[in-house]
Amino acid sequence: MDFKQLLVYQKSFSLAMEIFNLSRNFPKEEKYSLIDQIRRSSRSVSANLAEAYRKRKYVNHFISKLTDCDAENSETMVWIYFALECNYISLEIHKDLTNQSIEIGKLINYMINNPDKFGCNPKRTETEN
Hints:
The chain is mainly α. 71% of the residues lie in helices and 0% in strands. It contains four helices and no strands.
């Protein structure tokens, strides 16, 4: 299976694109702060998922990249809160984005807790060739 077929990848990519489109309407003075940060963290979730999937030969590498995904997803949620508090998005949009992020986090954590379901060999370590 290709990483693009993973449900979590599809959902994280969709959220990143939604954030990109919303952030186009943020004030220009936020270009190098909030806009840049929220776009980077949301895109990093999908990018790290792709890397994790390619590293599934070794469980510890796979899980390590997935924890990076989880961290970037959490960072995205913080920026979503900032966007709400700065009145750049409505409460309704905030709730929708937050719910999407929570769902993505649950899917990432499922992968972390069940690496064998994603092609990892739990007996294989980094020192094996």
